Amino acid sequence: MTDRAVIDALTEAILAERAEALVPHFEPLGLRPPSFRWNPSDGNLFEAPLKVLHGWWKRQRPRGAIPSIDAVDPAALRDALGYLMILDVLDNGWDYRYLLYGTEIAKRAKRDYTGLRTSELKVVSPIPTFYIACYRAVLVRPQPLMTRNQAPSDVATTSWTRLVLPLRGPEDSIARFLVGNVPGEWREIAPER
Fold this sequence. Notes:
By secondary structure, the protein is an alpha+beta fold.
């Protein structure tokens, strides 16, 4: 799943804001390419949990700095908790560990990844590779990144809208991500055999 050359190509496309470069990675599999927006305004965020996260993140920025991992307060984020993921940066940004995988996300994904690394996911879709590229792009350009993507057919939602927010660690580098992940419309999927 973690083909570094593909991840690098996707990361460069996201950093350069070249959405058309995503097409060859998704269309052959019957998926529309994801869309993305750097530094979304509140007017670009239609999902209430993402508005909560974005507002919290902006309020935590002392003199424009990236908020600290120590600033995360579950009570302040309670209206978004079911849609929240917290990921630690591992292996210089080539891998990530889910410290928290929100209950609403797990319900739609039909799996809870809390405690797992992205490298441990057994997914054949290009979507996880795109997500890793998004995280790597935010490591380079530590700004909020909003994405929308069509969900693979084995997931009980039609789409995901995500907001990736960087958090700095003790050494002032990006050490963690606060990610809002809101599903689109519900859809039934065939039970696993």
